[in-house]
Write a structure and sequence with these properties.
The complex is a heterodimer. By secondary structure, chain A is an all-beta fold. Chain A contains no helices and 12 strands. The radius of gyration of chain A is 14 Å and the shape is globular. The chains are: A mainly beta, B mainly beta.
Chain lengths: 117, 114
């Protein structure tokens, strides 16, 4: 079974600064998706960024980028130019791509990001 | 496109009762997945429905069940409620295609069991 670990329960960042969230995962599969989701206090889970394991290029979405290290099974999220609206819980998630019939996300425990003005 | 909608947003029940939660997916999405979120256990997968059939199931007791209708709307039912069932229940929809299978979440239903 796959597991996802987020070792940082909470991270604090100054507005306009950069913060990096860590995520490691364990899998024996070679093809999969990795995601970062953001859950603000309003509770709605929002997709931040997605990475396909077969792609060597790291995904980016505006101020959000990832550092995907497949051999190390590491998938960190960098938030640049942090804004007050970035304050939220961030979840790393894994989904198999080999077993197309298994449409299930396995989540890490989450990292709370605090943004100081 | 309208996002995933869940009703009701809040629910208070007592032990032993049953509850039904509803989820309407994004138009065109055929897969609906349900997750339970608690402070202690985090986010856990309950089950997935696709084309009115349960395709995957997480490690939850049989008191948790669901169904999907022909319009892809899904309901989740919990019978004989226990205090530990208090949680945020999230529903997510996805197109279920080979090219893209990202799950998009609804706002959740907060269930409190007294």
């Amino acid at each position: 079974a796959q597991t996802v670990t987020q070792s940082q329960p909470e991270m604090s960042v100054q507005e306009a600064e950069t913060v990096t969230l860590s995520c490691t995962y364990d899998t024996s599969e070679s093809d999969y998706y990795l995601f970062w989701y953001k859950q603000p206090p309003s509770r709605q889970m929002i997709l931040v960024i997605r990475q396909e394991a077969y792609k060597q290029q790291n995904a980016t979405e505006n101020r959000f980028s990832v550092n995907f290290q497949k051999a190390a099974k590491s998938f960190s999220l960098k938030i640049s130019d942090s804004q007050l609206g970035d304050a939220a819980m961030y979840f790393c998630a894994y989904r198999t791509r080999i077993k197309a019939a298994v449409n299930k996300l396995t989540f890490g425990g989450g990292t709370r990001v605090l943004v100081k003005p | 496109k309208a996002g995933v909608t869940q009703t009701p947003r809040y629910l208070i029940k007592t032990r032993g009762q049953q509850v039904t939660l509803s989820c309407s997916p994004i138009s065109g999405h055929r897969s609906v997945s349900w997750y339970q979120q608690t402070p202690g256990q985090g986010l856990q997968f309950l089950f997935e429905y696709f084309s009115e059939t349960q395709r995957n199931k997480g490690n939850f007791p049989g008191r948790f069940s669901g169904r999907q209708f022909s319009n892809s709307r899904s309901e989740m039912n919990v019978s004989t409620l226990e205090l530990g069932d208090s949680a945020l229940y999230l529903c997510a929809s996805s197109p279920r295609s080979l090219r893209t299978d990202t799950q998009y979440f609804g706002p959740g239903t907060r269930l409190t069991v007294l």
